[in-house]
Specification:
Number of helices: 20
Largest sheet: none
Number of strands: 0
Radius of gyration: 21 Å
Structural class: mainly alpha
Helix content: over 70%
Strand content: under 5%
Low-confidence stretches: none
Distance between the termini: 62 Å
Length: 420
């Protein structure tokens, strides 16, 4: 029996443009959501400090940042659709169970620290809006848990799309800051500075563009959504549009801070300082919009990170998984998701917790794992047994291997400088 969507597609076969639009909307979700969550609380802080400290000088870094994200997402989408399997499953087939379990343990530790970081973002958000911390954290944890436990994939994806739209608040805040657009456009050309802090910021911006969890979540969500080979080109288009959208948001975060805080030379160290510093310069609403964007980013990421963890752990060990599965059908999946949320919520409320040490440790684990994940992706995407005719072309391989090598070098530098 044909579904309502199938009937619409059949009727539009004679209208190519309308048909393409409907097909694109039908696959829209995984690529955009994954890319937007890349603007998590850590990313927002990095972009904000880059603008506050260096003005528009680091805008050029956004070109290599998001080109690499586009290529990584495109390969993830292609692998998910052609193989019909998540990345963890493909890695297990490629390198065996033992190596896969070691990688999964590392990812589990890293994602624990990353999820804790998002809950710390909720704490900062509560300070921005003057809400007691324990109320924000407890209500957020319950809301995040209920979202997945009570929903199915389609309903949860719609909510994720709405959360993605809230990032527009950063673009509005950036426009309210009234930037110097001539400086913005001229900064597309690199203005290099040869000092340690500047180089560290460049490494931080480019080196953290791709996170290991992103590739697992993207591929698993493509598989659970059920995107077919016939829809591949539309899903690949989304894998390009998603990073472009998240790049625009990140760019306007930097622009907002460059046009205001950098010009006024206001000292800032965290997102609370940045939101407060925007108010007297760009207006009360600009600071509020910045705070709303940060709250949304922290809440959104606090959903996606535990979800990606549950996906790849269950995939690698062969357990039932999926948002549409009930607790009785996928107990390990839902147990991991709930456990990660409530443990992180409880820990973040502990007084004097050494949060920076935990975040540093998770960043280091991410940095160590990312090169291995990228190399494994390259090996899988070029395996004709898995991908058939959909392997990378020669020139695409050259570009992707170059990207992998450059990001690996930057991540190694980032890990070393984190210790220093």
């Amino acid at each position: 029996m044909l579904t309502f969507t199938d009937n619409i597609k059949l009727r539009l076969k004679n209208h190519p443009r309308l048909f393409s639009i409907v097909m694109f909307i039908s696959v829209l979700g995984p690529g955009l959501i994954t890319a937007m969550v890349d603007n998590d609380c850590g990313g927002i802080l990095t972009y904000s400090l880059a603008g506050a400290q260096y003005g528009y000088n680091l805008i050029w870094t956004f070109i290599p940042m998001f080109l690499s994200l586009i290529m990584a997402q495109e390969m993830g989408v292609r692998m998910g659709i052609i193989s019909g399997k998540g990345l963890a499953s493909l890695i297990r087939e490629k390198v065996g169970v033992k190596v896969t379990i070691l990688i999964m343990i590392g990812l589990l530790i890293a994602n624990f620290g990353n999820t804790l970081a998002e809950f710390s973002g909720l704490v900062v958000s509560s300070q921005i809006f003057g809400i007691p911390t324990y109320i924000t954290v407890i209500l957020s944890a319950i809301l995040i848990w209920l979202l997945v436990i009570k929903g199915n994939y389609k309903s949860v994806e719609k909510i994720f799309m709405v959360l993605s739209l809230i990032y527009v608040s950063y673009i509005i805040a950036g426009l309210m800051a009234q930037p110097d657009w001539s400086q913005v456009t001229s900064s597309i050309v690199p203005h290099l500075q040869y000092d340690v802090d500047y180089i560290t910021m460049v490494v931080g911006l480019i080196g953290t563009t791709i996170a290991p969890w992103m590739q697992f979540y993207l591929q698993s969500s493509v598989v659970e959504k059920g995107v077919s080979r016939d829809e591949l080109k539309y899903s690949r288009a989304e894998s390009i549009i998603g990073p472009i959208c998240t790049g625009l948001v990140a760019l306007f975060i930097l622009i907002a801070c460059a046009a205001t805080i950098h010009v006024a030379q206001t000292p800032v160290t965290d997102v609370y300082d940045i939101a407060e510093a925007l108010k007297p310069i760009a207006g009360e609403y600009a600071g509020i919009l910045f705070g709303i964007g940060f709250l949304n980013a922290s809440l959104f990421s606090a959903v996606i990170l535990p979800l990606s963890t549950a996906y790849y752990v269950c995939e690698s060990l062969g357990f039932e998984m999926g948002i549409s599965k009930s607790i009785s059908e996928a107990p390990i999946f839902h147990g991991l998701y709930a456990g990660l949320i409530f443990i992180c919520a409880a820990i973040i409320l502990i007084p004097n917790i050494p949060l920076m040490d935990i975040l540093l440790f998770s960043q280091v684990i991410n940095g160590i794992l990312l090169p291995f994940i990228l190399v494994l992706m390259m090996l899988i995407i070029n395996d004709k047994r898995i991908m058939g005719e959909y392997v990378n072309s020669r020139w695409y391989n050259i570009i992707c291997w170059a990207m992998t090598i450059i990001i690996t070098i930057l991540v190694i530098i980032l890990v070393i400088t984190s210790f220093m």
